[in-house]
């Protein structure tokens, strides 16, 4: 099991569960300046999406610095603003932007992000959507999105000093209540022939 980074927090949960509000609450209580990293790309043709973005914007304190797409999330995590915490909302909208990448290119980008998160000394709070609790998506891009996001969340969860599950307006600290899933089901035995 890789060592955890005490500066890294992962918050996950279903849609409309309160996970962004919980992330904002934690960030506001870090005692450092906050850089809010919005990964959702505005789409003026989609009024419902724009309303969601506006709701998030109105909830943020005016003194938080906000970064919006296009942005290089890997570079930002490698060199965050000095004396600042990052609140990244959300991993799902970031992953969705790269579904066209082939698997080797995606894995390279994922590994770069994970390597940056392993060593960051700045507080980083990541918000991610739980997408695997429903039916298997009927289309390939939906399955690819679900699989990539789920695998990335497992990797980040293994690194994070704290992991929260937010559902129904309640935040559960999984690092206190749960046990990490082993990286291999049978670590001391050879794989079956």
TrEMBL record:
Tell me the route in metabolism or biology where this protein functions: Cofactor biosynthesis; adenosylcobalamin biosynthesis; adenosylcobalamin from cob(II)yrinate a,c-diamide: step 5/7; Cofactor biosynthesis; adenosylcobalamin biosynthesis; adenosylcobalamin from cob(II)yrinate a,c-diamide: step 6/7
What is annotated as the active site?
A: 56
Q: Which reaction equation describes what this protein catalyses? A: adenosylcob(III)inamide + ATP = adenosylcob(III)inamide phosphate + ADP + H(+); adenosylcob(III)inamide phosphate + GTP + H(+) = adenosylcob(III)inamide-GDP + diphosphate; adenosylcob(III)inamide + GTP = adenosylcob(III)inamide phosphate + GDP + H(+)
Q: InterPro entries given for it?
A: CobU/CobP, P-loop_NTPase
Key words of the record: ATP-binding, Cobalamin biosynthesis, GTP-binding, Kinase, Nucleotide-binding, Transferase
GO MF: adenosylcobinamide kinase activity; ATP binding; cobinamide phosphate guanylyltransferase activity; GTP binding
Q: Which positions are annotated as binding GTP?
A: 13-20, 38-40, 68, 89
Which Gene Ontology terms describe the biological processes this protein takes part in? cobalamin biosynthetic process
Note the CDD domains from the entry.
CobU (cd00544)
Q: What is its EC number?
A: 2.7.1.156, 2.7.7.62
What is the uppermost EC class here?
transferase
Specify one Pfam family: CobU
Q: Which NCBIfam families match?
A: PRK05800.1
Q: What does this protein do?
A: Catalyzes ATP-dependent phosphorylation of adenosylcobinamide and addition of GMP to adenosylcobinamide phosphate.
The family classification in the record reads: Belongs to the CobU/CobP family.
Protein name per the record: Adenosylcobinamide kinase
From which organism does this entry originate? Gloeomargarita lithophora Alchichica-D10
What gene does the UniProt entry assign to this protein? cobU
